[in-house]
Design a protein that fits this description.
Largest sheet: 9 strands, mixed
Number of helices: 12
Order of helices and strands: HEEHEEHEHEEEEHHEHEHEEHEHHH
Radius of gyration: 23 Å
Strand content: 15-25%
Number of domains: 2
Bound molecules: adenosine-5'-triphosphate, magnesium ion
Number of strands: 14
Distance between the termini: 74 Å
CATH class of the largest domain: Alpha Beta
Shape: globular
CATH superfamily of the largest domain: P-loop containing nucleotide triphosphate hydrolases
Helix content: 25-40%
Structural class: alpha/beta
């Protein structure tokens, strides 16, 4: 055996979830050859045990086919993510962390961001779920390429749909295509609870939740049902969008949700033919707002046709065009979000006790206000105003 033969054999082993092999990634180190006995180290970035196992199995097989009689593959992986240290009410206890993706207004790219961040987190080796909590406008199934897939039902529980290495559920997957929903606030609250309680989510490191635009019943119900580890705000650079985003950030503060950052989407335009970047809606305009809320712009995602076609065709850029500028920036944002979540857990996690309804079970907070009706925008309480 020679080092060349070993490397050539190992270059047939793909890094799980990617189209590149472990040699090209530069993960293979310390190759030792003694006759036909080979030992080496694979230094990977994922902490998932199944990734290490798959690499060991495939590398051993590849080397044995190349003539090795003894193979010692040492996979060096980072530590498993720490358990969540959050407290309070959690109706989906098998989920360790919850990331709420929010925006003040519609159409700024929340769903696009949720989908790509979820896939980018999974590419880091995390077990990820994606909940489309936009009950009225569920777009995630199309963006994930599973618009025609109906979930499996198990008793009165529903199995999430699997795509691109993550688990997904959406009202769109439960309804017939093109149907619309006319629901009252209380029904939205019930639906959010059922999405958390009655979907058979696996043991997840992180559930990414794509919220409807604005700050309403869905957001409050989510915060009361599970301890939301972190919030992500998506905005576009125009001032009108920023005004609305401020409301979204303020909501995180009121609900005691730590802010993982702001994604400035549609930030500049990259021409597909020349690669030249143009400033359309402005760029970097969100920075003062980030400072105001003691957070950061964790990514500026340009307008890139591949992002839109990726969404429409159900092939998110993070997966289908990982070398595109947008995909790279989504990946960096995901890494930053995960670092924030780990830091939040290291510092004791979050607690949603203070946002629980104050009325006894079965009594609506709306009916206990006496003659002084609570103002509609009071923020706390029952959320049914
Ligand atoms: N960076 C981008 N470049 C190109 N197209 C984009 C980009 N971001 C989003 N889009 C496109 O803009 C449209 C709106 O995005 P998306 O549906 O993600 O927004 P949203 O905030 O979830 O909207 P809603 O409030 O309706 O749920 C989609 O067609 C999407 O593909
Ligand atoms: Mg959306």
């Amino acid at each position: 055996m020679t080092e060349e033969i070993v490397k050539s054999a190992l270059s047939k082993v793909m890094y799980p979830g990617f189209t590149k092999d472990i040699v090209t990634f530069g993960f293979v180190k310390d190759i030792n050859i003694d006759g036909t006995a080979v030992s080496f180290t694979v230094d990977i970035t994922s902490s998932a045990p199944e990734v290490a196992q798959q690499i060991t199995d495939e590398a051993t097989e590849a080397l044995k086919s190349a003539g090795a009689t003894a193979v010692n593959c040492h996979v060096q992986a980072p530590q498993m993510p720490k358990e969540s240290s959050s407290h309070g009410k959690n109706i989906a206890p098998q989920v360790k962390n919850f990331l709420m993706v929010s925006s003040g207004k519609g159409g700024v790219g929340k769903s696009t961001t949720s989908v790509n961040i979820a896939i980018a987190l999974a590419a880091q080796g995390l077990k990820v779920g994606l909940l489309d909590a936009d009950i009225y406008g569920p777009n995630v199934p199309r963006m994930m390429g599973v618009a025609d897939v109906k979930p499996e039902v198990n008793g009165n529980k529903v199995l999430p749909i699997k795509a691109y290495g993550i688990e997904m559920m959406s009202m769109g997957s439960l309804m017939e295509e093109g149907q619309s929903l006319i629901w009252r606030g209380a029904m939205i609250m019930k639906a959010i609870e059922q999405f958390l309680r009655d979907i058979l989510w696996s043991e997840l490191d992180c559930l990414v939740i794509d919220m409807p635009p604005g700050t309403g019943d869905a957001q409050l119900t989510l915060a009361q049902s599970v301890p939301v580890t972190a919030g992500l705000t998506v905005t576009t650079p125009q001032s009108v969008s920023l005004d609305d985003s401020r409301r979204s950030l303020d909501m995180f503060k009121k609900l005691n949700i730590p802010i993982a950052g702001i994604i400035e989407n549609m930030s500049g335009f990259i021409a597909p033919d020349t690669g030249v970047e143009y400033d359309i809606f402005g760029k970097g305009t969100s920075t003062p707002m980030a400072k105001e809320f003691d957070t950061e712009i964790i990514a500026e995602i340009p307008i890139e046709p591949a992002v839109r076609t990726g969404g429409d065709e159900g092939k998110p850029v993070t997966f289908s065009a990982p070398t595109s500028e947008s995909a790279k920036r989504f990946a960096a944002a995901a890494a930053s979000i995960w670092a924030t979540i780990e830091e939040i857990n290291a510092n004791g996690g979050v607690d949603n006790q203070s946002v629980q309804p104050t009325t006894p079970p079965g009594v609506s907070a709306c009916s206990t206000g006496g003659s002084q009706a609570a103002p509609a925008s009071s923020g706390g309480g029952c959320g049914c105003s």
